[in-house]
Amino acid sequence: MIIVSGCLLGIPCKYDGGTNLSKTVKEFLANRSYVMVCPETMAGLTAPRPPAEIVDGKVFDREGIEVTEAFFLGAQKAWDLASEKARERNEEITLAILKARSPSCGSGRIYDGTFAGVVTDGDGVFAALLKEKGIRVITEEELEAYIEEEGIHD
Ligand code: SF4
């Protein structure tokens, strides 16, 4: 089973109330088992909401309000839901395809906390949790390379 960021499948849970719909992700998941999550809205944050970025392990929105607790709660809820679905389906979680650079879902590179569109090394809160659990995390931007690397032909 694959975990996927809801916004990549067209759910309007992005901070600005929009989506990050990815045709590549949608087509890849068409005949695969997956669970869609949005850690931030699962934490009770609204869409739209102020954008947030990570500074020294803490999460702040653009208005300077700390939202670290909500981000960790949402990550845990998203993990709990994915684990429950995997148990119900009697499947292993083999992969997560998460939105690049997000403070929850970003993997390897995230925005640097300046709200200036600058990226730095790091993981979003949910991506970090999944990696701790041993789940391979890729972003939608890495999916085509993953398909090629794994020799997937369907
Ligand atoms: S938390 Fe993840 S799934 Fe939700 S909008 Fe942000 S990037 Fe998309």
Number of domains: 1
Q: Please identify the oligomeric state.
A: single chain
The major pleated sheet works out as: 4 strands, parallel
Question: Gyration radius, to the nearest Å?
Answer: 15 Å
Structure annotation, total helices: 5
Strand/helix succession? EHEHEEHEEEHEH
Structural class based on helices, strands and sheet pairing: alpha/beta
What's the overall geometry?
Answer: globular
* Strand order in the sheet with the most strands: 2-1-5-8
Regions with pLDDT < 50 over 5+ consecutive residues?
A: none
Bound molecule types: iron/sulfur cluster
Task: Indicate the percent of residues in helices.
Answer: 25-40%
Averaging pLDDT over every residue, what do you get?
97
Relative strand content: 15-25%
DSSP strand tally: 8
Measure the end-to-end span: 17 Å
Describe this structure in words.
The protein has 154 residues and is of the alpha/beta class. The chain has one domain. The chain is built from 5 helices and 8 strands. The chain has helices spanning 23-29, 39-42, 68-89, 125-132, 143-150, and strands at residues 2-5, 34-37, 52-55, 58-61, 95-98, 109-111, 119-121, 137-139. It has a 4-stranded parallel sheet, with helices on one face. Strands 3-4 form a two-stranded antiparallel ribbon. Strands 6-7 form a two-stranded antiparallel ribbon. Helix 1 (23-29) links the parallel strand 1 and strand 2. Helix 3 (68-89) packs across helix 4. The longest helix is centred in the middle third of the chain and has 22 residues, at 68-89. It starts with a strand and ends with a helix. The relative contact order is 0.19. The mean pLDDT is 97. Iron/sulfur cluster (SF4) binds next to helix 2.
